[in-house]
Amino acid sequence: MLGARKVVSFDIDGTIVNTLDNTKLVVNRLFGVDVNDADIRKLGLTKSLYMLNREQILMAFSEVWKRPEEIRLIDPSIPGCIDEIKSNGYDIAILTASYGEDRFIKRVLAINNISYDNYYHVNDQLKKKDANVDIHADDSITVINSFAAANRPSMLLLNWWNEDRLDSLPNSDVLYKCKDWKEMTDLLCSDGLQK
Questions:
Q1: Residue 1 domain-assigned?
Q2: Are residues 88 and 170 in the same domain?
């Protein structure tokens, strides 16, 4: 008898698609504020927008998603990587806490040929750790720390905005740091994570 397929979930913003550049442009256009990359690196995107109130931040994030044709993949190989991961016994879930509306997010996924089996949109990124998935990939140090604290397997996609905060990650047998999508795909398709 065949075993149940494992579920790997992927975050959207910063893991599958690059909304950072679009957000910086929208914040500048709507509010005349230049978002500083050094602040993003040190504080994360949301905290780097300290000069805006919550409603303005939500408006900016929402505006970015209203133009799905302008949102680009982090890596053009992602559709092929996801297909390879699926062919190696995983179901694919999208697990996001994005401020974008589901219809726009799903449109971005369709435009970019991202196939998935399940879609979960939580209202708080720390709730991702409670999802019914076997392993999660994200670019957020906060999210990865929450998975590690719950002893849940996760993969951190390294990028310039999270590399300065890697020292906040715990030593953990269930936390994997991946430099790119190829490394995540290789890790998922290896014997080590299939057991």
A1: no
A2: yes
Query: Rg (Cα) of the chain, in Å, rounded?
Result: 16
Q: How far apart, in Å, do the first and last CA atoms of the chain sit?
A: 16
Residues 111-169 pLDDT 10s: 999 999 999 999 999 999 999 999 999 999 999 999 999 999 999 999 888 887 788 88
Which string of DSSP letters, residue by residue, matches 22-45?
Answer: HHHHHHHHHH--PPPHHHHHHH-H
Q: Residue 25 and residue 35: Cα distance in Å, rounded?
A: 9
Same domain, 41 and 128: no
Listed in sequence order, the residues at least 6 apart from 47 whose beta carbon sits closer than 8 Å to its beta carbon are 39
The domain in which residue 10 lies consists of 6-17+72-194
DSSP state of 139: S
Residues 156 and 127 in one domain: yes
CB 113 within 8 Å of CB 17: no
The pTM for the full model equals 0.90
Helix (H) or strand (E) holding 95: strand 90-96
